[in-house]
Amino acid sequence: MKRRPIPLLALAGLLLVNAAWSGPLSLEQALDEALAGHPAVRAAAERVEQRRAAERQARGHFLPTLRLEATYQHLDAPLSFDLSPIRSAMIQLQAANQTEFANVYGLLQGNPALSAGQRAELAQTFAAGLEGLLPPFESVLKDQNNHGASLSGVQPLFMGGKLLAGRRAARAEAGAARAELERARADVRGEALRAYLGVLLLREACAVRQAVLEGMRAHREDARRLQQEGLLNRVQVMRAEVAVAEAERKLFDERSGLDLAEQALRHALGRAADAELELVDSLRFRALADSLDPWLAAARGRQPLLAQLECKQAAVRQKVAAERADLLPRLAGVGRYELLDEDLSALEPRWVVGLRLDYPLFQGFRQAARLQEARHQTREVDDLREQAGRQVDLWVRRAYSQLRSAEERYRRLEAEGGLARENLALNQARFRTGLGTSLDVVDAWLLEEKIRLERLASLQQYYLGLSELTTASGQPERFVEIWRSGEER
User: What structural domains does the chain harbor?
Assistant: First the structure.
């Protein structure tokens, strides 16, 4: 068998897939990779293609319908008509008339009148002659075996506006499918974004836990040294030992959580469970200067959910128009042409054209009920659109509030972090001089750890709020723009 070469497009796709499995991964690359082959995005894209095909189908209803038909028939008997009785009656009547004429002629010539036997014999003679003169009154319309082929067509001329309503409804449904695709893309981006930020947060948290563990170990060594010098009792040394053990446990828990977060990120990216993750971005603060109003305005004009419902509104309005059209007459042009005329009967034309009018007069009030149903459905979708607008407005306000609250918390913790570091340095110095206790140093380390972890959590909440804000406003691409620019700390 001859081997066919792999198409260049498929080869390029394989190279792109392989490239996605290794190398440094930025946030923007992670989002693109998550969108590239996600099943939900592919399914939504297929729905868009379905609606486009339905839109083309609706346009096709305006064009004529042509149908080629071929038939073969075997009848129980040839289809024919027989007028032989009429022919026989005509012959008998004409023979009787000729016999009477012959009798009258004989009388005029002075001959005696014909007897009954002579009349019968003469009538038979005349009838035999007429049998040869008159053709048979019998014809075959259709042979027992016959075939045919014809071309027929129908052109809609007036459908009461139903075809136009169907085309507009199909266009609206296609718009709704595109909006649904944007929603699916936003959901996938949000999932990948949360997973990416979760890994960044836990990696930073593991670094904080590691630094605290190293500080606790250094403090334990200082405590042991002071105990050997007789300046510290066993209780304070044990407190340092406990603090080290607790820091090791917290680091272990944090690393376990990091493993789960990395698995979640691999799942969001569609990678294998053992694929390597090398993230190049880190959690840094980027300030957002925009006020709330531009985000609200963008949401009202760009939110895919609202766009989808607006398309649904247009579709159900066209459904009302289509149901109303069923109450009007429908007019179409029709035509038929027989391609094979060998087996056509004398009663069948070779071609025919005409008009067909269909006007439903009474349908048991079913059509009026369907029209009312469509109108109520229109009001329902209008109410859903209004409710969705309120929910989107609340969504934007809540996300903006979350973002600003996390930003304020992050800034406050930044100031508290400086005080915590200063407090740690003072307690370490007092402990080394014998003026402080091991508990003071441990508490200072725990406070430092707590503030640093809360800052990281606030920063994560800030970006999650920003993600919700960009998604709610229908501008998910703005997250990457803000992530790549602005103030960094």
Answer: 35-68+157-357+364-484 (1.20.1600.10), 81-139 (no CATH)
